[in-house]
What we know:
There is one protein chain. By secondary structure, the chain is α/β, with parallel strands linked by helices. The protein is built from 8 helices and 7 strands; from the N terminus they run βαβαβαβαβαβαααβ. The chain has helices at about 20-30, 45-55, 70-85, 115-140, 165-185, 205-210, 220-225, 240-245; strands at about 10-15, 35-40, 60-65, 90, 145-150, 190-200, 260. The chain has a 7-stranded parallel beta sheet with strand order 3-2-1-4-5-6-7, with helices on both faces. Helix 1 packs parallel to helix 2 (about 45-55), helix 3 (about 70-85) runs parallel beside helix 4 and helix 4 runs parallel beside helix 5 (about 165-185). It is globular and about 55 Å long. The termini are far apart. The mean pLDDT is about 95.
Amino acid sequence: MNKPFNLEGKVALITGGGGVLGSVMAQNLAQNGVIVGVLGRTIEKLNAVVEKIKNEGGQAFAIQSDVLNQKDLEKVKHFILEKYNRLDILINAAGGNMPGAIITPEQDFFNVNPADLQKVMDLNIMGTIMPSKVFSEIFAKQKNGIIINISSPTAERPLTRVVGYSAAKAAIDNFTRWMAVEMATKYGEGIRVNAISPGFFIGEQNRALLLTPTGNLTPRGESIIANTPMGRFGTPDDIIGTLVWLCTDASKFVTGVVVHIDGGFGAKSI
Protein backbone atom coordinates (compact mmCIF):
# COMPACT_ATOMS: atom_id res chain seq x y z
CA MET A 1 0.00 0.00 0.00
CA ASN A 2 1.38 3.39 -1.00
CA LYS A 3 1.98 5.72 1.97
CA PRO A 4 3.05 9.06 0.49
CA PHE A 5 3.27 10.77 3.89
CA ASN A 6 5.43 8.10 5.54
CA LEU A 7 8.51 9.42 7.40
CA GLU A 8 9.22 6.43 9.64
CA GLY A 9 12.95 5.87 10.21
CA LYS A 10 14.14 8.98 8.36
CA VAL A 11 17.03 11.00 9.82
CA ALA A 12 16.68 14.80 9.94
CA LEU A 13 18.88 17.66 11.06
CA ILE A 14 17.34 21.00 12.05
CA THR A 15 19.58 24.03 12.46
CA GLY A 16 18.20 26.57 14.91
CA GLY A 17 16.53 23.57 16.54
CA GLY A 18 16.31 25.28 19.92
CA GLY A 19 14.18 28.15 18.60
CA VAL A 20 10.39 28.44 18.64
CA LEU A 21 9.77 27.21 15.10
CA GLY A 22 12.74 24.84 14.97
CA SER A 23 11.76 23.06 18.18
CA VAL A 24 8.14 22.61 17.09
CA MET A 25 9.26 21.20 13.76
CA ALA A 26 11.62 18.82 15.56
CA GLN A 27 8.90 17.59 17.91
CA ASN A 28 6.40 16.99 15.14
CA LEU A 29 8.85 15.19 12.87
CA ALA A 30 9.80 12.97 15.81
CA GLN A 31 6.12 12.19 16.35
CA ASN A 32 6.07 11.03 12.73
CA GLY A 33 8.88 8.53 13.36
CA VAL A 34 11.84 10.69 12.32
CA ILE A 35 15.16 10.54 14.18
CA VAL A 36 15.76 14.24 14.73
CA GLY A 37 19.01 16.09 15.34
CA VAL A 38 18.69 19.62 16.70
CA LEU A 39 21.65 21.90 16.09
CA GLY A 40 22.34 25.29 17.60
CA ARG A 41 24.67 27.35 19.77
CA THR A 42 22.85 27.08 23.11
CA ILE A 43 23.10 23.51 24.34
CA GLU A 44 20.62 24.04 27.19
CA LYS A 45 17.83 24.88 24.73
CA LEU A 46 18.74 21.94 22.51
CA ASN A 47 18.79 19.51 25.43
CA ALA A 48 15.36 20.72 26.52
CA VAL A 49 13.97 19.98 23.04
CA VAL A 50 15.56 16.53 22.99
CA GLU A 51 14.27 15.71 26.46
CA LYS A 52 10.73 16.66 25.48
CA ILE A 53 10.91 14.53 22.34
CA LYS A 54 12.21 11.53 24.24
CA ASN A 55 9.56 11.95 26.93
CA GLU A 56 6.97 11.71 24.16
CA GLY A 57 8.53 8.48 22.86
CA GLY A 58 10.53 9.97 19.98
CA GLN A 59 14.20 9.77 19.02
CA ALA A 60 16.42 12.86 19.02
CA PHE A 61 19.93 14.11 19.65
CA ALA A 62 21.44 17.55 20.30
CA ILE A 63 24.53 19.00 18.64
CA GLN A 64 26.10 22.30 19.65
CA SER A 65 27.53 23.93 16.55
CA ASP A 66 27.79 27.19 14.62
CA VAL A 67 26.08 27.26 11.21
CA LEU A 68 28.70 29.74 9.99
CA ASN A 69 31.66 27.49 10.85
CA GLN A 70 32.35 24.95 8.11
CA LYS A 71 34.78 22.94 10.24
CA ASP A 72 32.12 22.58 12.94
CA LEU A 73 29.56 21.49 10.37
CA GLU A 74 31.95 18.96 8.85
CA LYS A 75 32.36 17.39 12.30
CA VAL A 76 28.59 17.18 12.62
CA LYS A 77 28.37 15.53 9.20
CA HIS A 78 30.91 12.89 10.17
CA PHE A 79 29.11 12.24 13.46
CA ILE A 80 25.78 11.70 11.71
CA LEU A 81 27.29 9.40 9.09
CA GLU A 82 29.13 7.34 11.71
CA LYS A 83 26.04 6.97 13.88
CA TYR A 84 23.23 6.68 11.30
CA ASN A 85 25.04 6.10 7.99
CA ARG A 86 22.74 8.58 6.24
CA LEU A 87 20.87 11.88 6.41
CA ASP A 88 17.49 12.31 4.74
CA ILE A 89 16.30 15.81 5.66
CA LEU A 90 18.03 19.14 6.33
CA ILE A 91 15.94 22.02 7.66
CA ASN A 92 17.74 25.37 7.76
CA ALA A 93 15.82 27.09 10.54
CA ALA A 94 18.70 29.13 11.99
CA GLY A 95 18.16 32.86 11.54
CA GLY A 96 17.07 36.04 13.22
CA ASN A 97 17.36 39.80 13.43
CA MET A 98 19.18 42.43 15.49
CA PRO A 99 18.19 45.92 16.67
CA GLY A 100 21.10 47.57 14.85
CA ALA A 101 19.85 46.23 11.51
CA ILE A 102 16.40 47.72 12.05
CA ILE A 103 15.48 51.38 11.64
CA THR A 104 13.42 52.73 14.53
CA PRO A 105 10.64 55.29 13.83
CA GLU A 106 13.01 58.08 14.86
CA GLN A 107 15.84 56.91 12.57
CA ASP A 108 16.60 56.65 8.88
CA PHE A 109 18.82 54.38 6.76
CA PHE A 110 21.96 56.28 7.72
CA ASN A 111 21.60 55.10 11.32
CA VAL A 112 21.90 51.40 10.45
CA ASN A 113 24.78 49.72 12.25
CA PRO A 114 26.97 48.10 9.55
CA ALA A 115 28.31 45.45 11.94
CA ASP A 116 24.80 44.37 13.00
CA LEU A 117 23.64 44.46 9.39
CA GLN A 118 26.49 42.14 8.42
CA LYS A 119 25.66 39.75 11.27
CA VAL A 120 22.00 39.55 10.21
CA MET A 121 22.95 38.94 6.59
CA ASP A 122 25.50 36.30 7.57
CA LEU A 123 23.24 34.44 9.99
CA ASN A 124 20.28 34.26 7.64
CA ILE A 125 21.76 33.70 4.18
CA MET A 126 25.23 32.29 4.90
CA GLY A 127 23.70 30.35 7.81
CA THR A 128 21.53 28.66 5.18
CA ILE A 129 24.14 28.27 2.44
CA MET A 130 26.88 26.76 4.63
CA PRO A 131 24.84 23.86 6.08
CA SER A 132 23.37 23.24 2.63
CA LYS A 133 26.88 23.04 1.16
CA VAL A 134 28.16 20.65 3.81
CA PHE A 135 25.19 18.30 4.21
CA SER A 136 24.03 18.19 0.59
CA GLU A 137 27.26 16.32 -0.13
CA ILE A 138 25.61 13.40 1.67
CA PHE A 139 22.52 13.79 -0.48
CA ALA A 140 24.60 13.90 -3.67
CA LYS A 141 26.19 10.55 -2.81
CA GLN A 142 22.86 9.03 -1.79
CA LYS A 143 21.05 10.53 -4.80
CA ASN A 144 18.33 11.35 -2.32
CA GLY A 145 17.60 14.06 0.24
CA ILE A 146 15.37 16.96 1.23
CA ILE A 147 16.43 20.54 2.01
CA ILE A 148 13.91 22.97 3.46
CA ASN A 149 14.89 26.60 3.97
CA ILE A 150 13.02 29.21 5.98
CA SER A 151 12.00 32.32 4.09
CA SER A 152 9.72 35.20 5.10
CA PRO A 153 7.03 37.45 3.60
CA THR A 154 9.67 40.20 3.80
CA ALA A 155 11.51 38.48 0.92
CA GLU A 156 8.84 39.56 -1.56
CA ARG A 157 7.32 42.48 0.31
CA PRO A 158 10.10 44.31 2.20
CA LEU A 159 8.90 45.73 5.51
CA THR A 160 9.56 49.36 6.31
CA ARG A 161 12.41 49.68 8.84
CA VAL A 162 13.51 46.02 8.40
CA VAL A 163 16.63 46.30 6.25
CA GLY A 164 19.03 43.38 6.62
CA TYR A 165 16.48 40.67 7.41
CA SER A 166 14.37 41.48 4.34
CA ALA A 167 17.40 41.46 2.05
CA ALA A 168 18.69 38.19 3.50
CA LYS A 169 15.35 36.42 3.16
CA ALA A 170 15.09 37.57 -0.47
CA ALA A 171 18.48 35.97 -0.98
CA ILE A 172 17.20 32.74 0.58
CA ASP A 173 14.36 32.59 -1.96
CA ASN A 174 16.88 33.03 -4.75
CA PHE A 175 19.27 30.46 -3.30
CA THR A 176 16.44 27.95 -2.81
CA ARG A 177 15.57 28.07 -6.50
CA TRP A 178 19.21 27.95 -7.57
CA MET A 179 20.01 25.02 -5.31
CA ALA A 180 16.92 23.11 -6.47
CA VAL A 181 18.09 23.30 -10.09
CA GLU A 182 21.71 22.51 -9.18
CA MET A 183 20.81 19.36 -7.25
CA ALA A 184 18.18 18.00 -9.61
CA THR A 185 20.15 18.49 -12.80
CA LYS A 186 23.42 17.09 -11.44
CA TYR A 187 22.27 14.44 -8.96
CA GLY A 188 18.78 13.45 -10.00
CA GLU A 189 15.18 13.92 -8.99
CA GLY A 190 15.69 12.37 -5.56
CA ILE A 191 17.11 15.61 -4.16
CA ARG A 192 14.60 18.40 -3.64
CA VAL A 193 15.08 21.92 -2.28
CA ASN A 194 12.15 24.05 -1.17
CA ALA A 195 11.39 26.81 1.32
CA ILE A 196 8.66 27.58 3.81
CA SER A 197 7.71 31.23 4.27
CA PRO A 198 5.97 31.65 7.64
CA GLY A 199 3.93 34.79 8.10
CA PHE A 200 3.97 36.70 11.37
CA PHE A 201 4.50 34.47 14.38
CA ILE A 202 5.11 35.73 17.91
CA GLY A 203 8.66 34.80 18.94
CA GLU A 204 11.33 35.94 21.34
CA GLN A 205 12.83 38.42 18.89
CA ASN A 206 9.67 40.19 17.73
CA ARG A 207 7.37 39.99 20.76
CA ALA A 208 8.12 43.55 21.93
CA LEU A 209 7.63 44.82 18.37
CA LEU A 210 4.17 43.28 17.99
CA LEU A 211 2.76 43.15 21.53
CA THR A 212 2.76 45.49 24.51
CA PRO A 213 3.83 44.17 27.95
CA THR A 214 0.12 43.67 28.73
CA GLY A 215 -0.42 41.58 25.60
CA ASN A 216 -2.20 44.17 23.48
CA LEU A 217 -1.21 44.89 19.90
CA THR A 218 1.38 47.59 19.26
CA PRO A 219 0.75 49.95 16.32
CA ARG A 220 3.05 47.68 14.29
CA GLY A 221 1.07 44.62 15.38
CA GLU A 222 -2.21 46.31 14.48
CA SER A 223 -0.91 47.12 11.02
CA ILE A 224 0.14 43.51 10.44
CA ILE A 225 -3.18 42.07 11.58
CA ALA A 226 -5.03 44.62 9.43
CA ASN A 227 -3.07 43.32 6.42
CA THR A 228 -3.56 39.63 7.23
CA PRO A 229 -6.90 38.47 5.79
CA MET A 230 -7.23 35.70 8.38
CA GLY A 231 -6.92 38.33 11.11
CA ARG A 232 -4.41 36.65 13.42
CA PHE A 233 -0.76 35.83 13.95
CA GLY A 234 0.42 32.36 13.00
CA THR A 235 1.15 29.61 15.48
CA PRO A 236 4.03 27.14 15.12
CA ASP A 237 1.58 24.29 14.53
CA ASP A 238 0.36 26.05 11.37
CA ILE A 239 3.60 25.04 9.68
CA ILE A 240 3.47 21.31 10.38
CA GLY A 241 1.21 20.12 7.56
CA THR A 242 3.34 21.85 4.93
CA LEU A 243 6.53 20.62 6.58
CA VAL A 244 5.45 16.97 6.49
CA TRP A 245 4.23 17.34 2.91
CA LEU A 246 7.58 18.75 1.75
CA CYS A 247 9.55 16.08 3.63
CA THR A 248 7.69 13.13 2.09
CA ASP A 249 6.97 11.54 -1.27
CA ALA A 250 3.63 13.36 -1.24
CA SER A 251 5.59 16.25 -2.81
CA LYS A 252 8.08 14.19 -4.83
CA PHE A 253 7.64 16.35 -7.97
CA VAL A 254 7.93 19.64 -6.07
CA THR A 255 11.24 21.49 -5.98
CA GLY A 256 12.36 25.10 -6.12
CA VAL A 257 9.18 26.52 -4.58
CA VAL A 258 8.53 28.84 -1.64
CA VAL A 259 5.34 27.88 0.22
CA HIS A 260 3.69 30.80 2.02
CA ILE A 261 2.03 30.12 5.37
CA ASP A 262 0.91 33.63 6.17
CA GLY A 263 -2.87 33.82 6.51
CA GLY A 264 -3.08 35.61 3.17
CA PHE A 265 -0.64 38.43 4.05
CA GLY A 266 1.19 38.10 0.75
CA ALA A 267 -2.03 38.25 -1.24
CA LYS A 268 -3.43 41.37 0.45
CA SER A 269 -3.50 44.68 -1.39
CA ILE A 270 -5.34 47.97 -1.00
